[in-house]
Amino acid sequence: xxxxxxxxxxxxxxxxxxxxxxxxxxxxxxxxxxxxxxxxxxxxxxxxxxxxxxxxxxxxxxxxxxxxxxxxxxxxxxxxxxxxxxxxxxxxxxxxxxxxxxxxxxxxxxxxxxxxxxxxxxxxxxxxxxxxxxxxxxxxxxxxxxxxxxxxxxxxxxxxxxxxxxxxxxxxxxxxxxxxxxxxxxxxxxxxxxxxxxxxxxxxxxxxxxxxxxxxxxxxxxxxxxxx
Length: 228
Hints:
Elements: H1 2-8, H2 10-26, H3 33-54, H4 58-76, H5 81-100, H6 109-128, H7 133-155, H8 160-179, H9 189-216
């Protein structure tokens, strides 16, 4: 069984982790950007492949599509922050559509407070982070989609310890990017922390969604190329 799991399930995840680690360490080397950029994109790209191959539901395919767009954003952002942000905006919208298919009953108490903080607090904080006023509104617009995605993950019926936590880590990584345009500019904090926090968030979110879908709808597991 462990060998079967390794052959059928883990290769895509293992390749994803290898790509993520390779990008993190190789970017400090003299490796040309033409090699680094595809390595970076393949980290989340392999997560998309894992998602697509492990479950045939519409939700899994929506998430896989969002991950493909996010992988494009990972590469585009190396050349242009606005272009990369636009790709991630689209990825967030797709994720929101997927998450709305899995809503919990109406939230109450602390859960509703967390939902509001993620939904409204994310763009509110993002607005004040860049020092350049010209970036404040574009960043806020993007952060509305980011916060909506995180709030949707929190309000979904997916396990919060993975999906909710993964979405929150995504928010933290992006806020660090915006802080690099403001209070953290001139430091290396964003450079060292953004990628591992972002990738861990994407990994948790993807595995959490796929694992849950496979438990709920085992008949939709893909038979060839990534399942039993």
